Amino acid sequence: MTVTHSQTYATLPWAATANLCRAVSALALAAGACLAFGTESRADVHLEAIKAAISRHSNGNVQVDAVAATPVPGIFEVTNGREVFYADSTGRYAFVDGRLVDIAEKRDLTQARLEQLAAIPFDELPIDLAIKTVRGNGARKLAVFEDPACPVCRSMQDTLAALDNVTIYTFAYPVVSPESIPAAVSAWCEPGDQRDRQWQTYMDGAPPPQAIAPQCEPAMQQVGRIVEFGRTREIRSTPTLVLGDGRRIVGAMPREELDAALTRAAAR
């Protein structure tokens, strides 16, 4: 006689059937718990590994309180007290104040990219519109966009005067005040070998002319070309410096730092 499954189970006492069901349920729950525990343990180990990597890449200079996952795959939240930044799974790269940083090299990768985008190849500068000054062997190159109405430009004159073995191309860039326009035109109105001296007097604080002399009106075209070049290259502030390798520096720079930057640029 063939025995069906229903007949087999029907022959089991009710209590035994209930015990079997409870046993199966318990096994299922245990398996689920083990799976969850294993997953959670692996996640914790991974987060601790990122924490250790950040400390290693920073030579212990970055103290991490906690690392947590974020909704973005591969990006992790890092907290240090009340400070928060985000790191990748290697612990080497981090987003700090909206900038991508290489922790190991202590390098702001965002700033490096911005400098690349802002660079002006030196051979693209309108050198024919610059006031040229050669010091020493003139091997290093520096372009300066400056305005007599700019206090920072005036304060930087001693730094520029202290540089040696450099060729400085000065662009009279009257964008800070309309009063600087007659000064720029006046300098360009001078013979070529006297423009540097005339422009320097204005940068040293001499009052600019109140108006453009009639005989100097042709020089307006030269000054206009300088301003137009600056506009197309988005030179919005003075002083703006351009090193020999094209790097753009906005604002003043200590003499030692500028001297070192000029040497590095000349070596590239």
Write the layout of secondary structure elements.
Elements: H1 5-10, H2 14-57, E1 66-69, E2 75-80, E3 83-88, E4 93-96, E5 99-102, E6 107-108, H3 109-118, E7 131-135, E8 140-146, H4 151-155, H5 157-161, E9 166-172, H6 180-189, H7 195-203, H8 219-232, E10 240-243, E11 248-250, H9 255-267
Parallel strand pairs: 8-9
Antiparallel strand pairs: 1-2, 2-3, 3-4, 4-5, 5-6, 7-9, 8-10, 10-11
Classify the oligomer. Answer: single chain
Strand share of the residues?
Answer: 15-25%
**N-to-C SSE series?**
HHEEEEEEHEEHHEHHHEEH
Task: Kindly state the percentage of residues in helix.
Answer: 40-55%
Q: What name does the CATH topology of the largest domain carry? A: Glutaredoxin
Which CATH top level class of the largest domain fits? Alpha Beta
- Whole-Å distance between the termini? 96 Å
- How many domains is the backbone divided into? 2
**CATH architecture assignment of the largest domain:** 3-Layer(aba) Sandwich
How would you describe the shape?
elongated
What structural class do the secondary elements suggest?
Answer: alpha+beta
**Total count of strands:** 11
CATH superfamily of the largest domain: Glutaredoxin
Please give the order of strands in the largest beta sheet.
1-2-3-4-5-6
Count of alpha/pi helices: 9
Mean pLDDT: 87
Q: What integer value in Å does the Rg equal?
A: 35 Å
Indicate the low-confidence ranges by residue numbers: 1-21, 23-37
